[in-house]
Amino acid sequence: MLIELDGVGVEREGRPVLAGLDLSLTERRIGIVGANGSGKSTLLRLFNGLAIPSAGRLRVDGLDPVTQARQVRRRVGFVFQNPDLQIVMPLVSEDLAFGLRNLGAPRQDVGPRIDAVLRQLGIEALASRHCHALSGGEKQLVALAAVLVMEPAILVFDEPTTLLDLRHRLRLGRCLAELPQAAIVASHDLDWLAGFDRILVLEAGRVVLDDAPAVALPWYRRRQEA
Amino acid sequence: MQELYVAGDTWLHRLGAGWKLLALALAGTLMFGLRSAGPLALACLAVAAVLWSASIGWQRFWAQARWLAVLTVFVAGFTAWVQGAEAGAVAGLRMASLIGLALAVTFTTTASALVDALAAGLRPLHRRGWIDADHAAFTIALTLRFVPELQRRWLAIREAQAARGIRASPIRLVVPMVVAILQAADAVAEAIDARGYPPERDREGARAACPSDETSARN
Predict the structure, then answer these.
(1) CB pairs under 8 A between A and B
(2) Alpha helices, H only, B128-215
(3) I need a surface site. Which of A138, B31, B70, B129 has the fewest CB within 10 A?
C-alpha cells in the first residue's frame, strides 16, 4: 500500500487546515503527532475520502480518494476516536455485519467472517451483546473489529486511546502489534507510538519533522514542554 | 427496544422476523374482531403460552411489561367505569394480549432481523419508486442504536447543569441537547460513509427505481 501526497492542502472556511504536504507513506506503522488543531484528523480523513483536498494531488494505492472513494474505502479502514459514534447497529454482531453487507459479501460468508475477527481480537463473548452496554474499551475493540472484518489493507486510527483506561489501552496496543495490516495512527499517547517505523510531527497543518520515533518523539516532547 | 432482545434458540427465536411481524399484524386484527371476554381470555392464555415457550424469564419480562401493565389496568378500569365491567374486561384482555405478543416478537428478534423484514415488506413500494426500502430500514436500525446514546447525553447535560447549580428546565436541556445531536449526526454520517454505505449491491441496480439513492454525496 502506497499513499502519495503531492502538494496537498485542505482549506476550511477559507482557512488552511493542511498546507503543502509532500509525503510518500509506505511503512507498516506510521504515527502522527501534533497539538490539537494541528491537522492530524484532517490528514487521516484525506486517506479515505472523508476530507477533500483543496490543492495538490493525493493517491491511495494509485486511486483518487475523492473520485474513487468506494474503492479506496475497501482498502482503508478508519477507526474513529469515539466508538460510540462509529458503532451504528444495536448488537455487536449486527454492527460487524453492517460493513460486510455494504461490501456486498455473500450472506453465507458474513457469520464466519464475523466469528473469525471476534476471535482474532479475543472478544467472541461480545458477539450478542448490546453495543451501548459495553465499556469504553470494549466499544473501541468492537469498532476495530467492525473495520477489520472488511479486510482493509491499511488501518487508520484517529486518537484511538483517548477514551481508554490503561488496561484497554495496552490491550488495543497488543492487538495493533499483532495485526498484519499497515497502520497510520494519530495519537497524543507517545508511548504507544514508540515502536513504530516512522513519525510525522504536524504543526499548523504542516509536517515539521518526519523521522524515526527515537528522534521524532523526544523532539516533539521537548517542543511541547518548551 | 434495544434492551429487549434476549438471545435464545427457541422455536420463536428461529421463526423468521417477517413471519413474526405478519403473525402479529394478523393476531392484532383478529383481537379487534373478538368482542367478548371469554375468547379474549383464551387468546390471553395462548399469548402467555407463547411467551413462556420463548424462555424469556419472568423478571426480564416483568421489567419491560410492568408500566404497560399499569397502563392496561388503567385503560381497563376507565373503560369499565364508563361502559361497564364486560367492556372493561374486553379492553384489558385485548390490550394485554397485544402487548404480550409484541413483546414476544421484540424479545426474540434482533433489530437487524426486524429491519431486514421491514425492508423486504417495503420492497414492492421500493420497486415502484415510492420509497427507498433499504434507507428506511437502515434509518430505523440507526434510531434504535442511538436511543440509549441520546439518553446518556441527556443525563450528562442534566448532571453538568446540576453540578453548576442550574435548575433543570426543558429549554435549558433541549438547546444543548439539539447541539449535541447535530454534532453527533455529523460524526455518525462520517462513520457510515467510511464503512461503505450504501451497499454495493444497491449501486448495481436494486436501487434503480430510486433516483435519489446517491446519499453518499461526499463520495
Answers:
(1) 96
(2) 133-163, 170-194, 200-201
(3) B70
